[in-house]
């Protein structure tokens, strides 16, 4: 009960911190929220009426309490850019980012973890050098440059995949947005032509993000495995005559798994909040592009709402990682 209470307290404090930061950002930005709504040619009377309607005449602490109260009711205000409630925009754009980040993370796990393990086992050999070089390149190459090159080669020249966007315009509206993830919704509806088109569109942007996740996960897996393979219990297992595969995957990798859960969780969370450049290059209608466009249009309700949702998602993923950590490692219970 004490741990549950501590977790709830930490969640509340994190929520207060996130809301406070986003609120302060919204207030210190040089953009006038009233002008963003009524325009710079509005009369003084219209300006003052909107000023009062937004509650900007109240003390700052009261504005914050109203802000938090509205959020707890699911009210992030109305977007100036789209004229829709911000919560509706988030429900529309966030699944697109979730789709990209999830695919990229899965690729990073499926490819990066075995690559990191094999690199550690073959320490100092050719495969190890290849994994290290690819890991370095994955962190060094700018994603916007790589994305444009990928579009030029695989879309414009070879025509192997579809271009920017999430789906071709003539497929838009065919599938009802049940989950918001077009791959899942089209499969549930049995619209396999739409599904195929969506897959063709998602390959390049997901691959760009996957390069980052794969490089990071492989590098960290290699580092963790090297540390475990030098432990005395591994030497003892080998002396006992256990097969090398059993020593690596049953003994050494089991201890690495606890650390990997944290790394994978951080990678997934960073992809959710850091896919702005990828979404911009590929015209992907995700939350990152939504927040960026809102910022350029001085749409602070949308910026604050989107930032807060991404922040809460980051916290939620970290809490889930902590729960999985306790399940995998009984010593943490």
From TrEMBL:
One Pfam family linked to the record: BPD_transp_1_N
SUPFAM superfamilies attached to this UniProt entry: MetI-like
Keyword Transport on entry: yes
Record-stated family: Belongs to the binding-protein-dependent transport system permease family.
Protein name: Peptide ABC transporter permease
Residue span(s) of domain ABC transmembrane type-1: 94-321
Domain of life: Bacteria
């Amino acid at each position: 009960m004490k741990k549950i209470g501590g977790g709830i307290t930490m969640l509340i404090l994190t929520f207060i911190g996130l809301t406070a930061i986003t609120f302060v950002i919204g207030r210190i930005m040089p953009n006038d929220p009233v002008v963003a709504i009524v325009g710079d040619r509005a009369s003084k009377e219209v300006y003052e009426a909107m000023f009062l309607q937004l509650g900007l005449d109240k003390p700052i602490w009261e504005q914050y309490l109203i802000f938090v109260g509205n959020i707890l009711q699911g009210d992030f205000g109305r977007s100036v850019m789209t004229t829709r409630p911000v919560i509706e925009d988030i429900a529309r754009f966030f699944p697109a980012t979730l789709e990209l980040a999830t695919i990229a993370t899965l690729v990073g796990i499926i490819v990066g973890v075995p690559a990191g393990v094999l690199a550690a086992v073959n320490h100092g050999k050719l495969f190890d050098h290849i994994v290290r070089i690819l890991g370095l390149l994955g962190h060094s190459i700018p994603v916007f440059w790589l994305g444009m090159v990928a579009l030029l080669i695989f879309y414009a020249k070879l025509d192997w995949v579809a271009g920017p966007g999430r789906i071709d315009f003539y497929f838009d509206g065919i599938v009802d947005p049940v989950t918001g993830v077009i791959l899942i919704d089209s499969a549930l509806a049995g619209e396999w032509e739409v599904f195929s088109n969506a897959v063709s569109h998602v390959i390049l942007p997901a691959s760009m993000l996957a390069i980052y996740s794969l490089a990071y996960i492989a590098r960290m897996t290699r580092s963790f495995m090297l540390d475990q393979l030098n432990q005395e219990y591994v030497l003892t297992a080998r002396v006992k005559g256990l097969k090398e595969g059993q020593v690596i995957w049953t003994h050494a990798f089991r201890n690495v798994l606890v650390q990997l859960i944290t790394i994978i969780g951080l990678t997934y969370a960073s992809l959710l909040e850091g896919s702005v450049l990828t979404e911009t290059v590929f015209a992907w209608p995700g939350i990152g592009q939504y927040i960026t466009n809102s910022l350029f249009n001085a749409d602070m309700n949308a910026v604050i709402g989107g930032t807060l949702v991404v922040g809460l998602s980051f916290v939620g993923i970290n809490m889930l990682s902590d729960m999985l950590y306790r399940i995998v490692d009984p010593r943490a219970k």
